[in-house]
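Continuing the series of single-chain predictions for the mutant panel. This is the parent chain; the variants come on the following pages.
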Amino acid sequence: GLTSAQLVALSTDQAAALTSTQLANLTTAQVPALQAADVASLSTVAVAGAGNAFVSALSSAQVAALITTQIAALTSAQIAALPTANMVALGTAGVVALTTAQAAALSGVQLAALTTAQVAAFETADLAKLTSTAVKGLTTAQLVALTTGQAAALTSAQLAALSTAQIVALETADLAKLSTSAVAGLTTAQIPVLTTAQIAALG
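Parent structure:
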């Protein structure tokens, strides 16, 4: 196989020719040797077929180098394998590039690692696919960052999964946009902690 030195020496054209099998065969020590420009040159087919270990071994600089078509090509399992330390490296464009299936694969710790700008960049269809377990990972700052459009996409299961601290963090403008079915998801533990302004916003 290729040595780390040979990987560093690869041209972008050579990197673009690498197959999924070649990438999958790289050790976790070899993966970081790929230059960021080379990572950006990898074909979507090669990236998608490279496996989970390849993705989990990428450095934050390499993740930041991924272009949106490469991100969208990743399998749900590969998305789930992304280390929390590299979530910020996806950038806002990377979050926008996520498919609904990929969004559904995100964990709570991965969500918590995102910046507020990244959370605000979620497409509504993707946001609605976040699991009820994953939304428990959202920080209060991230919940504040939600747009009214995103709030309108929240499901009853997602809302019911939020802690009382998370519920209190929801802005009145967002609460006003919740669907009636989502509001029906509020639990008996959540309702008592709502402020008078939040209750008024619910109409």
